[in-house]
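Input.
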Amino acid sequence: SRAILAPKDKSPRSLALGPPPLVQPKPDSLAEGMPWVWKGGPKGFGKGGFGGGKGYGKGYGGGRGYSSRPQPLPEGFEVNPTTVFTGTVITYYKFQGYGFITPDQKGAIPGDKVFVFWKNINSTDRFPSLLKDAQVQFTVSVVERRGVTTLQAENICNIGGTPIAVQDEVDQKKTFVGGQNLRYTGTLKFFSPKQGFGYIKIDPGFQYDKEGVPEEIRVEQQEMNCGGGNPDTAENLQVEFGIWVTQKGVFKGYNVTLPGGVPLPQAVPEA
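Output.
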């Protein structure tokens, strides 16, 4: 196969880099309400530009909003924040960053269902997430959400206490251009948190082991490596990345970071 070369006038060191370190997200204080919401910006990219589109479908903030009313705590219900529960993820909306867990201990939690927010997932993934039907352990805490006193899952991890690592399993099923650890360089033309994607212009001069790699490739939110956080709005940012190919033959950005494997800037949650 053909050798994969560095771009002209650029150090080949970037291609010898291993995968960037996956930064453990730092525990946050109780996440109030919903994830951060990006309020839009200049138009001009894709359909409707940065500020267009319908956001995350049924997700928080950017789209139609999370419409289900939180389960209020019964009067007099007491919570021991040190009690560890086990349970099953009954649903998780990856791009919206929330879901629900049903505990194995029936009757221990009102409604036998508890809300989970991405910030409270103990994960080594670049974009913390849960898989439906996964077995997990967690604690609970009392929070105010949308004006309702309710429960929220905290310290979500694998049963036994190890961090959740979903993306490694997903990555093993991907087909890569030049291999999973090969890094390319380019410019992130834009990334829109509201729309959940952006586009990268690849630096000229690369040769590939697959035909048809375009000059610009799309990157999805889950491939924006922010060290366990949500990505911020970006425009004309120098980045490095891998390239993977979907089953339909579409080339996309993989594990996008700043040069040198430094995590991308995280979005600042709204106060």
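The radius of gyration is 20 Å.
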